[in-house]
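Co-fold these.
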Amino acid sequence: MNELRTILGDVVTRLFTDLATKEVVEAAEKGEWPDALWQAVEENGLTLPLVSEAKGGAGGTWGDAFVVTRAAGRHAVPLPIAETIVGSWLLSESGLDVPTGPLTVAPVQRDDRLRLARAGGGWRLSGTAARVPWGGAAGHVVVVTESEGRTMVALATRGAGVVTRDQNLAREPRDTLAFDAAPVVAAAPPGPRVPARAVWLYGALARSAQMAGGLDYLLRQASQYATERRQFGKPIGSFQVIQQNLAVLAGHTAAAGTAAAHAFRAADRGDPAFEIAVAKVRVGEAAGVGASIAHQVHGAIGFTYEHALQFVTRRLWSWRAEFGGEGDWAAELGRSVSERGADALWPHLTAR
Amino acid sequence: MPTFRFELGELPPEAEALRAEVREFLRRELGDAAPVRRAHSWGGFDREFSRKMGARGWIAMTWPKRYGGHERSALERYVVLEEMLAAGAPVSAHWIADRQSGPLLLRFGTEAQRQKFLPAIARGELSFAIGMSEPDSGSDLASLRTRAERVPGGYRVNGTKVWTSNAHLADYMIATFRTHHDPAKKHEGLTQFLVDTKLQGITMSPIIDLAGAHHFNMVVFEDAFVPEDMRVGEEGAGWKQVTTELAFERSGPERYLSTFALLLELIREVGKDPGERAAATVGRLVAHLTTLRQMSLSVALMLQAGENPNLEAAVVKDVGTTFEQEIPEVVHALLGVEPTIDSGSDLQQVLGFLMQRAPSFSLRGGTREILRGIIARGLGLR
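Predicted complex below.
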C-alpha cells in the first residue's frame, strides 16, 4: 500500500472513530440525518475520491475509494458515502458537474427502469425506482437510464420526485422515488467506462467493500470479546472450539478483504465485471458465515440492541442482498466461465 | 490486537513471460494426458519429467548459482508452480526437495552438504521424502521418540516413522530424531538428519491408502548408522528447523489447486449454456478460486519482500484446503453422478479419484485443527 493511502486510512479511521459513535448510529436509525458527521466527511474530501481536483474532488483512484468505503463499513457509518462516491464518478466520467452534498444512485433494482425524454432544450425523467439507498436524504440522485435506445446519465434533485420512505434491516433509508416528467439538472451520454448497468455493477462493488469492512469489525470485536468474557473460570477464547470458530471467521474475513481489493484494482484498470462478480459472491458468502460466528461467540449479549455488534451484522444481512445477491452474481459468473469453456479458465484467471 | 494483512501484488513482467514458456513446455510434454492422470496433481512421480524440468532451470529457481540454482525471484518460481499444478504435471519426484529439503539445507546445512546435494536436486536427479510422523506422534510432533544415539563417527538410530510419503521411491529422507530426552522439555532434544533410504538397518513396508494406492510407508530403523556429517544443523535445533520448514509449504498454489482438474471437468459437463443452478455452482467455485489465488499470491509477494507472513500462510492453507475438499461435494450435489475408479466418463473417474483423496488435504503438513490453532494464536487468543 502506498504512503498516501496509508495516511488516508488513518484519516478515515480517526474520523469515524471520533464521530460515527454508537449514539450517532442509533439516532440515524431513528431517522435523524447525522449532519455533523456528513460535514466532517465532506470537508475531509472523502466523498469524491474519483472526481478531478479541478472539479472539486480528490483526483484519486478506486483504490482510494476502497479505503474509504471499507472503513465506512467497519464503522457502520450511517451515511450514503458509497453512493456518493459511485454517483460522483458516474457524473464526472460522463463530463457532468458534481454538486456538493450527499448523492444517491438509481435505479438499483435489476428490473426497475426510469425513462429520460427530451423536452424542449432539456430532459424530463419519468418512472419509479424502488429501494433507492438514502433516496429521501440525498440532495441529488444520479440516474443511469435509456433514452431512445441510448444509455444516458442524468442528475436530478431530490425535490424532482415523490419520495416514499422505507428502510432495510439496518434501518438505513431505502426509499421509492417516483418521477413524473420531472426536469433534470443535467444529462449526458455516459463516459466510455460507464456501461449501461453501471449502477448495478459499481453498487455491487461498493457493497463488497462495505461488507469487507464489516467483517474486519466482526473479527476484531469477536476476538476481543473472547479474550474478555470469562466462563468456567477462564476466558472463553481459551477454549479450542471458540478458537477454531474464530479461525474460520478469520479465513472468511481475509478472503473478503482480498476479493474486494481485487475488484477495486480491476475498476482502476477498467473492465472490472469479472472481479466485481467474484467479490460480491465471495464477500456475500463471508458475510453470512461471519455474522453467524460473531453472534455465536458473543452469546446473548450480542443479540441485544444495546451491544454494537448488531449494527454491523444487520448491515451485512442487508448489503449482501443489495445490487444482486450471491446467487445472481454466481450465475452470471458461471455463465461467462462456461461460455469461454473449461480450457480458457486458467488463462483467463492468470491474465486478471 | 495483532492481525493479518493481505495486500494485492502484481507479478513482474519477467514472471509473466516465463508463464508462456512453461505453458508451451506443458503442452508438448503432457499432450492429451487423461484428466484422471492430471488429477494426481503434485502426487504424480516421474523422474524423467523432473529431469526435464531441471534442465529447463525450473527446479531450485531461487537458490544461489553456486549450488546449481538459478537466482530467479520467488515470484517466477510461483508462476512455474501454479502452471504445473493447473496442468496436473507429475512433479512429485522433485517437489519435496525443491520446496522443503533444499531450502532447509540452504539455511541450516553444512557447506559440504550443500555442495553434495543441492546441484543434484536442481538437476531433478534427487528425490526426497520427509520423515516426521511416528506411530504415537502425529499432530503432537514434539513427542517424537525415534532415538539417535551418539556413537563414534555418527549416530545409531532406532525407532519407527510412518506415513512417509514416497520413501520407497526417494533417494533421501530428511528425518527428525530425538538426540536428547527430557520429559519436561519435549521440544528440545530433536535433531534433523539426512538419511540415505538405502541405509543398512532400515526396513520399509508399504501402507496402502484407502484407494488401494501405495504412497505411504512405514520406515523402521534398527541400529541404523547415520554418519555425523549427515546431521543437519546443531543437535537439539530440530524443532526450530522443522517449524521453519513447515512454513515453506503452507501458502503455495498446491493448497487450493488439488481438485482443479475436477472443476474443469464440471465446466465441460455443464456445457456452454448451463442452467441457472449449474451456472451459479460453477460461478461460486470460480469466485472462491480467484480469491484464493490472490491471497496465495499476496503471501508469495510478502515472502519475496523478506517478510514473515506465517499467520497469512496458515490462513491461506486453511481456506484453500477447505475449498479443495468442497469441490467433490459440490459436484456430487449438482450432478449426482456416480464416482468411479476406471470406468465411466472422465468426470466420473476424476470425481472418484479426488473424492477418495480429499480427506488427506486437511491432514497433510499439519491438520486443519493444528492450523486453526496457529491462526487463533495470531488473533491473540492463545
